[in-house]
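Human:
Focus on the backbone:
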Amino acid sequence: MNIKMILAEALDLLEKLLNDLKEKQSLFSLLILAFTVAGVSGWFLYLLDPNVHSIFDGIWSAWVTMTHVGFGDVVPTSFLGRLLSAGLILFGLVLFSFFTAILSVTLIGKNMDAWGINVRQLEKDAGVLKAEENQILLELVRLRKRMDALEKRISSATR
């Protein structure tokens, strides 16, 4: 494969993934939650901490803390500011866990759909095989009865 084909396949995969993610309501809900928490927490940081000089600095600090980037340009110095930042660190962990779960479900979900079709076909085939097996067993029972009857006739004829 040449590099153009590989890049084309990668871009196609990325496009499909982005289209699938657009359909996920949970992703939009998660992003709205993240931005809301960053905004509200930034506002609280501005009110609680003397080292946070504007609401925008507070929002920036909250966002950087939640995403675990931690530039260090805006650092809370008060106890309540640090306590709020510690909560944001934990919230960020949960946030990324949910994001990873949504992404995983999106990626695996496509394969599960195809797998589900295969499983349904296997179940259908297994049902057909079971019916055929039951017919064979019934025929064996019928043949066994005939053979028993023939053995009785032969043994009574030879006596």
